[in-house]
Write a structure and sequence with these properties.
Blueprint lengths: L2 E2 L3 E6 L3 H11 L5 E4 L16 H6 L12 E4 L7 E2 L15 H4 L9 H4 L1 H9 L17 H15 L25 H12 L5 E2 L9 E2 L5 E2 L25 H7 L3 E4 L2 E9 L2 E9 L4 E12 L3 H11 L16 E4 L2 E9 L15 E4 L18 E6 L19 H10 L4 E8 L8 E9 L5 E6 L4 H20 L4 E4 L17 E3 L23 E3 L14 H21 L5
Parallel strand pairs: 1-12, 2-3, 2-12, 3-9, 4-19, 12-22
Antiparallel strand pairs: 4-5, 6-15, 7-8, 10-11, 11-12, 13-21, 14-17, 14-20, 15-16, 16-17, 18-19
């Protein structure tokens, strides 16, 4: 029998960006919060020896142990899903701070078009523009309504950036100036400007200068060491939950973090959550934590899986299109890249930062005419200087031998003579793309694994080739002597890293029949249960998702405070 603890005001499942923001905002109001994190404790001291590419980038020190829990994957419903035994397409964070520790720091706001995508697409092109079985829907909130929460997230994390001429209106400028512009970035900017495009410095959670946020948290400026993605930042220059919101919550004395606590079920009576059941992974003991209010703030797959295992909400049925839990899984279309090789120019490719780059949105959202194109939405196009660490980077022109003297000579020659321009394309949901519980495979506790059913569609192939052609045009204008670019988008390949931008499964909307949560991330079916994170996205945009996740978390925190005062489903 599980050990039952005294009731608390709020229990949070997963202490990353979402959990940290919720804890910070609630504890500042005097609310007692328990945060359950299945991984280990972390502080910046843990990152002091982090510049080890083999240990962190290739042996996945900060990531979930796939031998204990993984996902299963299939390209369509006709084949059996198999477990992901080693990391490839995406990386699942583990431990305090979650993916907020190992992210790059690229912090965009989704476009106004994203939040009203179905209405805006039909308004401009007619309903026939939307392919059969594409299940896009409006989010139940507009960009203008969400803008103040974007602003709050950016001020908390000290985002360094400059105005994007093709984005939604801002109430305030970025709190810190943009990062440095390197010769490679300047080359991209000049070429794009010559082409009448609109480049801007990428919004970055790697601080351009020392900064103190509204909560009084002070952080140092970025050192451009190139160890951001897959690494923690020992300087605290990269905004992550461990150095921003979690310390604020802990300082109140109202926040208790329990690490090594693997939540396995949400407990409820009728249409009210009563707490959670978790296992202390250090002892194997089962523990029941009662609470007045439960908030799921874990990663996409964990949020969906917990709801399905707990029997909360109606599971999605791909045959009928009914149900909502698991619906509208989406990924990212990251294949539209062009790599240029320069015979007579060299660049310092080994310096950089996770969000150091230059971006343009001329081909993102609905910023361009889609009338004669066989896809909707688009993607951002950018040049990144994240820093080419020595093991994982070895670009040579196509046609080069894959081993031997020629390979070695070309590797040395082009080590600092190549640049890449890439497109990050939006991912649209389809009726047959979804998440559910695997009927065969289980985790270390005997619980079913999360199963993904997904593949690229014609929408993705058309979008990918379009972005690739635009990237190639920009690279030509940049003066590359030889260019390799994408010529074809094949089936989705889960074995090759692309991005960790998984979304959907507990989607947001204005209609309980087609969405799981309202625009405060409150479950329609269980009013004292909030589900926060990218699981709420009805589709994925042409950007990294973290900025939008942060905005929705602040919106959810406001909703939780309102619910505690008034009760009921928020409107």
């Amino acid at each position: 029998m599980a050990k039952k603890l005294p009731k608390v005001d709020v229990v949070i499942v997963g202490v990353g960006w979402g959990g940290g923001i919720i804890a910070s905002e609630l504890t500042k109001k005097g609310i007692n919060v328990v945060g359950l994190e299945r991984g280990k404790e972390r502080t910046t001291e843990d990152y002091f020896m982090v510049h080890d590419e083999l240990r962190y980038a290739l042996r996945y020190e900060l990531f979930q142990d796939l031998s204990k829990e993984t996902i299963t994957f299939r390209g369509n419903e006709k084949i059996r899903a198999l477990p992901m035994r080693q990391y490839g397409s995406f990386l699942l964070g583990d431990g305090l701070g979650g993916a907020g520790v190992h992210w790059n720091g690229q912090t965009y706001r989704f476009l106004p078009y994203d939040f009203e995508i179905r209405s805006k697409t039909i308004e401009r092109y007619g309903e026939k523009k939307i392919p059969k079985d594409m299940t896009i829907q409006d989010w139940g909130i507009t960009y203008d309504e969400l803008e103040p929460y974007f602003d709050t997230f950016e001020k908390m994390s000290g985002i360094s950036g400059e105005e994007n001429p093709l984005a939604g209106k801002r109430s305030n400028p970025y709190p810190t100036p943009p990062m440095k512009t390197t010769p490679a970035l300047e080359k991209f900017k000049k070429a794009a400007t010559n082409m009448k495009l609109h480049p801007y410095s990428r919004p970055s959670a790697n601080l351009s200068e020392a900064y103190t946020n509204p909560d009084g948290v002070s952080r140092a400026a970025c050192q451009y060491c190139a160890y951001c993605e897959r690494f923690g930042c020992e300087y605290g220059a990269k905004a992550d939950p461990v150095v921003t919101v979690i310390p604020v919550a802990k300082k109140t004395g109202k926040f208790e973090i329990r690490t090594h606590s693997n939540v396995r079920r949400i407990l409820y009576s009728g249409n009210k959550a009563t707490g959670v059941l978790y296992t202390d992974v250090t002892t194997g003991e089962e523990i029941e934590q009662p609470a007045d209010l439960v908030v799921l703030t874990s990663y996409v797959f964990s949020n969906v899986r917990l709801l399905l295992m707990s029997g909360i909400g109606k599971p999605y049925n791909s045959q009928t299109g009914t149900g909502v839990i698991g619906k509208n899984y989406a990924y990212q279309v990251q294949k539209g890249a062009a790599t240029g090789f320069f015979e007579n120019e060299q660049f310092n490719n080994f310096a950089g930062a996770g969000a150091l780059g230059m971006t343009l949105d001329d081909y993102n959202g609905d910023n361009f005419d889609h009338s004669n194109l066989n896809f909707i939405h688009g993607g951002s196009i950018a040049i990144s200087q994240t820093g080419q660490r020595p093991i994982q980077n070895n670009k040579v022109p196509s046609g080069t031998a894959t081993w031997g003297k020629e390979f070695k000579n070309q590797s040395i020659k082009y080590a600092n003579r190549s640049l890449s321009v890439g497109g990050q394309g939006a991912s649209m949901p389809f009726k047959h793309h979804y998440l559910d519980l695997d009927p065969t495979y289980k985790d270390a506790f005997g619980d079913p694994l999360m199963r993904i059913t997904f593949d690229f569609e014609e929408q993705d192939r058309q979008l990918s080739m379009f972005l690739a052609s635009k990237c190639e045009e920009i690279m030509k204008e940049m003066g590359a002597d030889k260019i390799d670019s994408l010529k074809e988008l094949g089936p989705y390949d889960i074995t090759t890293y692309q991005s960790t931008h998984n979304t959907g499964g507990v989607i947001m909307g204005a209609d309980p029949n087609t969405s799981a949560v309202n625009n405060y991330s409150q479950m329609w079916d269980m009013e004292n249960l909030f589900v926060v994170g990218a699981s709420a996205f009805p589709h994925n945009g042409g950007y990294n998702p973290t900025g939008t996740v942060g905005a929705l978390a602040y919106r959810a925190a406001e909703g939780i405070l309102t619910y505690r005062d008034k009760g009921g489903i928020l409107v």
